[in-house]
Amino acid sequence: MYNFKEGKKRVEEIINTELEIKEENYLPKSIDLTFNNGYITHVASISIDIRESSPLFKNENKEKIAKLSKAFNSELIKILNTNDNVRESRVIGDCSCAIYTSPNTETVENLYNMASYCNMYVKMLNQILKDNNLPTFKAGIGLGYSEVLLVKSTMEDSVIEDKLWLGDSIIDACKFSNISNKGDYKSVIMSKEFYDTVSSINKNVEKEFEKKDDPVYGECYTGELIIPKVNKWIINEFND
Question: How far, CA to CA in Å, does 178 sit from each of 65, 164, 188?
Fold first, then answer.
């Protein structure tokens, strides 16, 4: 059972212990992260989320849903991990997400380009599902970029050693993946910070993405990201 008196002591220790905060422009893969320190750095984040998954998972055959979920997440994680700047990737329910150290605008643009691979994979997967008489689905992609504070969320004796990323980047990616590919929004939504950064070196972004003022989430930018050769292959030559 949980001991509240011992818990009180641990919380007071957290509150009264001074943290050593370091600033890192580039966050190495291996860092000395302890319960008593933290890192300030810039990261870009991506989240890919299945639309209306609850009724889909509830109404379809469980074996079919298991196959769909495994196919969706396993290959997306492979795509997300191809970028050397990845610092964390995970699957949460029907969502695949990843966080990347982003010391400059080029690293943000790399994630922008990777989002097109994720979008094309979803299109390819849907075609495979259709060919095999399995349920198809829509997915939304969210992109975020910001300064974050990285700390360790559990004490040294915990069986869970989880990193806690405190900042808008991860939050923006998750919330925008939740509303993308719905209503007036296209399949990809990026935060204002992500848009401002990537559009400063890639002027095509201004043509491909439309500004939106969401009543809940504020200013954001939505558009489609495709790879023309891959898209042509899926549409015209997939089963050749």
Answer: 20, 21, 10
